[in-house]
Amino acid sequence: MALKKIYLHNLVDGTIKIDLQLELIAGENGLDKEITVADVNRPGLSLAGFFDFFAFGRIQVFGLGETAFMRKLPEAQRKEMLEMFFSYDILCCVFTHGESPDDLFIELANSRNIPVFISQYRTTRFVSLWIHAVEGYFAPTITVHGSLVDVFGVGVLLLGKSGVGKSECALELIEKGHRLVADDIVEIQKIDEIFLFGKSAEIITHHMEIRGLGIINVKEIYGIASVRNRKRIDLIIMLEEWERNKEYDRLGIDEHKYSILDINLSFITVPVRPGRNIPILIETAALNHRLKKTGTFSAKDLDFKIQEKIKLETAKKE
Predict the structure, then answer these.
(1) Yes or no: domain 140-298 corresponds to CATH 3.40.50.300
(2) For domain 6-137, which architecture applies?
(3) Annotation marks residue 72 as catalytic
(4) pLDDT of 219-264, one tens digit each?
(5) What pTM value is reported for the model?
(6) Catalytic annotation present for 39
(7) What are the C-alpha distances in Å from 307 to residues 53, 129, 251, 252?
(8) How far apart are the first and last CA of the chain?
(9) Cβ(218)–Cβ(207) under 8 Å?
(10) In 99-255, beta strands by DSSP E
(11) Active-site residue (options: 72, 211, 250, 317)
């Protein structure tokens, strides 16, 4: 499991793939600070002189309200407030809507090596992009060998030993209109402690290795609608070679789970042998998973009806 570190200079050096439209205007010597939380802070109360519970370790976002408030403060009061503000070890400051701080703000920021940025985005848009861009760096991440496909809106992760046919199965699902997320190497991130999202390793995005064909570019062959960059994982299917003496689940009443990063996901095993149409089984499994989420559990419903029928017939005999 990998946990990356991110620093303020990563906001402007291309490491962050989302363009936050940041322009550095002060505090260049403080760009080596590490960002430890994705949350932001709106320093409205602090500008009014209330510094209790001041979250100075977060990025400080100055919207139109904060900027206008500072401009209306008398010069002496503004100086006192800013000196108090910059007495804390501020991570950095961002002024949204393209607004700029005054000369005193920039002077104090430079003297304490606190980076100050200007973003052209409106405040809500910037905060949304910031959290989305940064949260991945704090998310626990692992890499698994498999294929991830969006099947009827269900993120299906195909696992199994090398050569069992994961990529071929994924390719047939793509041909049937479903969407490839990742093949061979699936990077999985734990988001908000409850979701798992998968994506491809960047260098092989949209590519697949098919034995006998070699490397193919799915996006170029099947079109942009055949791929997606990221997908929440909902169902895990283990493909394994059929074993004659192994007992396989034929009812599906018992729900099995597979744990990744301490999150349990629905799990089924699909035996592979000549003559079995594995892609259509995976499509059915995805649809059945969606049905369960709406409260309909076909296997349990049928079992309940059978049990009730048996009770009724038994009562008649008595």
Answers:
(1) yes
(2) 3-Layer(aba) Sandwich (3.40)
(3) no
(4) 999 999 999 999 999 999 999 998 877 777 666 677 889 999 999 9
(5) 0.70
(6) no
(7) 60, 53, 14, 16
(8) 62
(9) yes
(10) 116-119, 141-151, 154-160, 179-191, 195-200, 207-210, 214-217, 230-232, 235-241
(11) 250
